[in-house]
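Re: biotin structure - here you go.
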Amino acid sequence: MHLIKVNAINSTNSFARELFKENKAVPVTCILAKKQLQGRGQRGTTWESEEGQNLTFSVLYPHPGIPPANQFLLSAAVAAALVQGLQKFGLPKLKVKWPNDILSANNKIAGILIENVITEGQLTASIIGIGLNVNQEQFPHLPAAGSMYTVSGKKYEPQEVLDVLLNELENRLDLLSNQSAAAILQDYKDRLFRFGIPSTFERPDASRFTGIIAGVKASGELIVRTEDDLLQEFDLKEIKLCY
Ligand code: BTN
């Protein structure tokens, strides 16, 4: 995979988008930033990362060959690749918290933000943004956050971690067009945090309800068996899974 290393930029996702705009025939490329000035997270949040300790990168993936309605499959495959890659470093209890937070021992150690370029109804490129906390020691304002270091007590060489993750990602992306949606989702569900366990969910108005995660759709909606024994589907804007 091509690798571009940059010092300080706003966001590797934005950089990747520009790169694709300039050259539609660009190969799969990873953009790694030493520092992001405006790192973005899911649900309009910002992504903060201590300089020199962690990994913040994006993989520009042109022409992923999946219908826009099934774009969650890419997200599921990326989450599974990260878990598989991180397993090689012996981290405890690695799980994916829907939709795509990576947890180790219940601490969020990585986040994924996938942004798509859609032209005339077709997915022309996906930008897979990944923030992984590697050696950061403290997360004063984020009680649920952690790093590879905080969960294992060991420090890691970020470049070595990146090499392993990019290798896993490349393998998964190569497989993507040959795998059925059911197989990709099964692999994702096998790693899902609180799958099949009674859990609490929060709506945007802060009200809560309990239910059991029963599945995930190729479009990304979470299927929850609610207390009245109904299977209900929720998208990212409708609910948040509480810890
Ligand atoms: C989340 O909220 O969990 C997703 C975080 C994604 C952060 C990464 S860091 C590299 C890439 N560039 C960005 O601006 N965001 C993603």
